[in-house]
Design brief:
This protein has twelve helices and 27 strands. It is of the alpha+beta class. The longest helix is centred in the C-terminal third of the chain and has 32 residues.
């Protein structure tokens, strides 16, 4: 082959290579693929997420406030947020826009305080971190691990940090990272949904009012239109609602209202029951003692038919919250100190279920236990909240006294463990009105009875106070405290997140809530081995590469000598 023809072939091969590379680059703009080699598929979006992103018809703008001088864990979280948003843009294109901002950059202390107040009022929660300066000192600074999402001029907050005091900083950051897809896509779905779903708080039976449920109503309003109303025994009145919430009733239900609720459930409606089986409260202890009695609500037959029974008892738990007690001697000024109150259990959560995964303890007041009915074979029962391993049952009627605080719990009495307080029911429910004449309840137009439900689910909680927030009456009006916040310990429990997750789980038709079950393994270095073998690994990492290069050079020199000298 001549030299000229060889050059022509080389030029042709080079041209073809360039053309192929250009084509690959061009095609890659329209075709995306990724090979996720991680065992937990942490870099793979769920099908539901992809579908929601592809169907966006307007821009969702996300302003992330996690920026600036961050420590290593929060830098990792910041990187993960950017990665998930970049993944979103692959499917939503330009309909996902985001930016990271440092609100405190080049601002005075007064300006920083105003910014913090403004963002807090919008719903973002700041947190403190400790950072080392160049001189080796440690300083405390405030960051905001959250974002504001804007869609069609609607702005909503999103807090991204899961801050469980019982877990290490690494575990909290890891839990926050593994929930990023759920947190973002759940809010994006809600914002972009043209048909806002409705839920309702049932009234008319002495339930908690709009102030006592004010904080959870505000939280649920991010996802639903929240109404309140009386049933008045009207069949079908609940049909427009995706779910109903029955929050701590104190008066008996009429048979007509029970029938309406029963048939609503038979036709696929979701129900959340927050029921006090015992009539007692801390306010009734104003004189030091009170009598705890059974709270007769006339709904026991409904719940029994659906698969469980709320026992008319009270749970005492060594793992409990505190109440203020006057410890001053008679005649002296009051001296209130916090004291453990065994009737206020701090409930543990089911760590394996999407509703309660990564939640902290849930605060309860005068909770009861729940028994499941084994005869209901087509109903799956899942315990979501339960007492600790050191629990005692108090049967009612019972006399409750503040003097019980003075008595140290005896271990032999607290020998019951893991009593269910909240249970999720899933399956095919049977109507409580099968073979019952309802003619006497309805004068005209007697409704038909659906005897068995479609596949359905509901939540039953044996404590009405789990959904109740504290209120304070002031000259400016009624102030509503955050649900789960305890003003004596200044700790916020997971009541609100539990309820929001439960409502989303019951009403979710796309399986998005299942994203909360994703778990990323936390592969931490062994700190003891790091300390013990520090010098060894420093030598390996610094001298190892140099030695390898020297060995490679010597071997190469020997090979070259043998090749060209024959020695």
């Amino acid at each position: 082959m001549s030299l000229t023809k060889q050059k022509q072939n080389d030029v042709l091969q080079l041209s073809l290579s360039v053309i192929i590379v250009i084509l690959i680059i061009y095609i890659s703009q329209f075709v995306f693929f990724r090979i996720d080699l991680t065992s937990e598929k942490r870099y793979t979006l769920s099908p539901s997420t992809k579908e929601i992103l592809r169907n966006l018809d307007d821009v969702v703008f996300i302003k992330v406030y996690l920026d600036g001088d961050l420590n290593i864990p929060f830098k990792k979280m910041q990187k993960s947020i950017k990665e998930i948003l970049d993944d979103f843009r692959i499917y939503a294109r330009d309909n996902i826009q985001y930016e990271f901002v440092n609100s405190f950059e080049n601002t005075s202390s007064e300006e920083q305080q105003n910014i913090l107040t403004d963002l807090y009022n919008k719903g973002l929660r700041p947190t403190n971190i400790h950072a080392k300066d160049r001189e080796g000192g440690v300083s405390e600074k405030i960051i905001i691990p959250g974002a504001l999402l804007t869609y069609n001029q609607t702005e909503v907050p999103l807090n991204l940090l899961k801050n469980n005091p019982s877990l290490s900083a690494e575990q909290n950051i890891n839990n926050s990272i593994q929930s990023l897809e759920f947190e973002f896509i759940n809010l994006i779905r809600t914002l972009s949904n043209k048909n806002t779903e409705k839920i309702a708080f049932i009234e008319g039976h002495g339930e908690l009012d709009e102030f006592q449920t004010g904080d959870i109503t505000k939280a649920l309003s991010t996802y639903f239109q929240v109404d309140r109303g009386i049933i008045n025994g009207k069949p079908g009145i609940l049909d427009p609602y995706k779910a109903i919430i029955i929050a701590k009733p104190t008066l008996k239900f009429t048979e007509q209202d029970k029938f309406v609720i029963d048939q609503y459930i038979m036709n696929g409606g979701k129900a959340l029951w927050f029921i006090d089986a015992v009539n007692v409260s801390l306010d009734s202890l104003v004189n030091g003692t009170t009598l705890a009695l059974i709270n007769e609500l006339n709904i026991e037959d409904l719940l029994f038919r659906y698969g469980l029974r709320i026992n008319p008892n009270l749970i005492q738990d060594v793992q409990c919250n505190v109440i203020p007690v006057n410890m001053a001697i008679a005649g002296n000024p009051p001296k209130f100190v916090p004291a453990p109150w065994l009737y206020y259990p701090l409930l543990g959560v089911n760590a394996g279920h999407p509703v309660t995964k990564n939640l902290e303890l849930v605060k309860s007041e005068f909770a009861s236990s729940i028994d499941t009915i084994t005869a209901r074979k087509f109903i799956r029962k899942t315990v979501l909240l339960q007492s600790s391993a050191s629990t005692r049952i108090i049967e009612v009627p019972a006399m409750i006294s503040l003097d019980e605080i003075k008595n140290k719990p005896k271990p032999e009495y607290f020998n019951v463990l893991d009593l269910p307080v909240a249970i999720l029911l899933e399956g095919f429910f049977e109507s409580a009105f099968i073979n019952r004449g309802i003619e006497k309840y309805f004068d005209n137009n007697i409704p038909e009875i659906r005897e068995k439900s479609m596949l359905n689910k509901m939540l039953v909680v044996a404590d009405g106070d789990i959904i109740r927030n504290d209120i304070r009456k002031t000259a400016q009006g009624i102030l509503i405290s955050e649900l789960g916040y305890d003003r004596y310990t200044q700790q916020t429990f997971s009541n609100k997140e539990f309820i929001v997750n439960a409502v989303n789980f019951l009403t979710d038709n796309q399986g998005i809530i299942q994203l909360r079950s994703r778990e990323f393994r936390l592969r931490l270095l062994d700190k003891h081995k790091i300390q013990d073998d520090r010098l060894k690994w420093q030598l390996i990492n610094t001298l190892g590469p140099v030695i390898l290069i020297l060995i490679f050079g010597i071997v190469l020199a020997v090979l070259r000598r043998r090749k060209y000298t024959g020695n």
